[in-house]
Amino acid sequence: MSELLTRLEVEDLKENLREVQELLHRHALAEGLVSRQEIPRHALVEQLVHKQHLAELRTKLENLHPADVAYILEALPLEERLVVWELVKADRDGEILLEVSDAVRESLIASMDSDELVAAAETLEADELADLAPDLPAEVIQEVVQSLPAEERERLRSALSYPEGTVGALMDFEMVTVREDVTLEAVTRYLRRMDELPDHTDQLYVVDRERRLRGTLPLARLIVSDLDVEVAAVMVPERVTLHPQDRAADAAQAFERYDLVSAPVVDARDRLVARLTVDAVVDYIREASAETQLAEGGLREEEDIFAPVLNSFRNRWSWLAINLFTAFIASRVINAFEGSIAKLVALAALMPIVAGIGGNSGNQTITMIVRALALGQIQAQYWRKLLAKELGVALINGVVWGTLLGVIAYVLYSSIALGGVMALATVLNLILAALMGVTIPWLRSRFGKDPAIGSSVLITACTDSGGFFIFLGLATLFLV
C-alpha cells in the first residue's frame, strides 16, 4: 500500500509540473503573438492576456503544498522558475524557501530585495529561521532578529549557536509541557484552550518547577486514562533523551531504532530546552544521503541542474582534475607494456575486462564501508577483521569469475596460457580492489575527512591502473 501511495504521489507531482509548464508555455506563446501584431490598444490587449494566464497559474500554485511548489521550482529553468516564484504569495515565501534545495534557494534569494526577504523570514519560527539564516544576507538577519519578541530572539540565537549536523541545529522549540502534580482533567482543559497542537505532538513533556524533565505523557495514555488521576500516576520515563551537542546522525539512528515521533532535548542539568521531531530527522537523512551520493561522484556540493555553466564548472573541476591525473597514470602503465601489446593484440581487448570487474568490485566494497561508517557500525579495533573478510570475499569472487573469464579467453583465442593469465589477473585485481575499498575510507576517516568524498574516483583509479599493470605484467612474464 505504501509503495502504491508513493507511486501515486510521484505521478501527482509530475502532473502538477506538467500543468505548470503548459501554463508557462501558453503564457509565453500568447505574449509572443500579441507583441507581433500591430492592432489598436496593443498594450491593453497584451496586458489582459498577460494577466489571464498568470492568474490561472497563480491559482494553480495556491492550491499546492509548499513542498510541491518547491519540486516544481527545482524542475524549471531559471527564467521560468523566477516567473513562478513571483506568483507565489508573499506569506508562503519562507515555507517554500525551506523546502527547496540549497542551490535553488540561492537563485531565489538572489532575485529578492531586502524587504521581500525580511517579510519571508518573519513568517517563520525560530528553528525554521535558523535553517534559512546561513543563506540570507547579514543585514536581513539583523533586521529580522530585531523584530522578534525577546523569547523568539533568544531561541534563534540558541539555534544558530550549534553547528550543522548536530541536534541543536535541528531541534524544535514548539512543544507542550505539564507538571506532574496536576490532574489529567486539568491537562485536557489546558490543551483545549490551545488553537492547535504543535506539529508531530505524540506526547507531552512532564517537567518540574525548574523545567527538569521528569518523564513524558503520551497522548494515547492521556485519552484512555481516568481524568481524576494525576500526571505522575500515568506518565512514563523517557527512554531517549538528546542533547543539543549530540550528532544528528546518532539521533537519526535512535529515531529509526525506537520508531520515535519526537524526543526531548535537554541541557547538561536535564532541563528541557526543545524537542526533535521525526520530520526534521527525515529531512536530515535525505540531505545526508544526497550529500553522500554527490561526494562519491566527486561533486563538492549540491548543484542546481539549471545552474550557470561557470557555477557547474567550479563544482566539478577538482575531482575531474584528479581523475585526469589518475587516467594519465593508467595510460603510462599501458605505454610501459606497448611492446607486449604489439606482439599479442588480444591483450588490448581483454585488459579493460580485468580493470572493469575490479572497479565494480571495489565500488561495492567502498559503498558498504562508507555506509557502515555513517551508521557508526565500525569500531577502530575491527578494521583488521573487516579487511580479512573483504579479502576473503574477493578471493572467492576472483576464483569464480576469474575461472569463467579464463575459459572465455581460451575459447576466443585458443590459448591455455592466455586463459590462465586472465584468470590470475582477475583474482589479483579483485584482491587489490578489496584492499583499496577498505583502506581508502579507513585512511580518510582516520585523518578526519569524509570517507565518501571522491571514493568512487579513487577506487576506480586504483583498479584501472592496478588491473592494467597486473594483467599486462603477467602477460609479459608468461606469454611474450
Could you characterize the architecture of this molecule?
This protein has 480 residues and is mainly alpha-helical. It folds into 3 domains: 2-162, MgtE N-terminal domain-like (MgtE N-terminal fold); 177-279, CBS-domain (Roll), CATH 3.10.580; 309-478, SLC41 divalent cation transporters, integral membrane domain (Tetracycline Repressor, domain 2), CATH 1.10.357.20. Helices cover 68% and strands 5% of the residues. The chain contains 21 helices and 5 strands. The strands form 2 sheets. The chain has a 3-stranded mixed β-sheet. The chain has a two-stranded antiparallel ribbon with strand order 4-5. It is globular.
Mean pLDDT: 86
- CATH class of the largest domain equals Mainly Alpha
Helix-residue proportion: 55-70%
Number of strands: 5
Enter the CATH topology name of the largest domain: Tetracycline Repressor, domain 2
The CATH superfamily title of the largest domain: SLC41 divalent cation transporters, integral membrane domain
Which helices and strands occur, and which strands form pairs?
Layout: H1 2-36, H2 42-62, H3 66-74, H4 78-87, H5 93-99, H6 102-110, H7 114-121, H8 126-132, H9 138-147, H10 150-160, E1 177-178, H11 184-192, E2 203-207, E3 213-218, H12 219-224, H13 231-234, H14 248-258, E4 262-266, E5 272-277, H15 278-296, H16 309-336, H17 338-343, H18 346-374, H19 383-413, H20 416-446, H21 455-478
Parallel strand pairs: 1-2
Antiparallel strand pairs: 2-3, 4-5
In short:
With 480 residues, the chain is mainly alpha-helical.
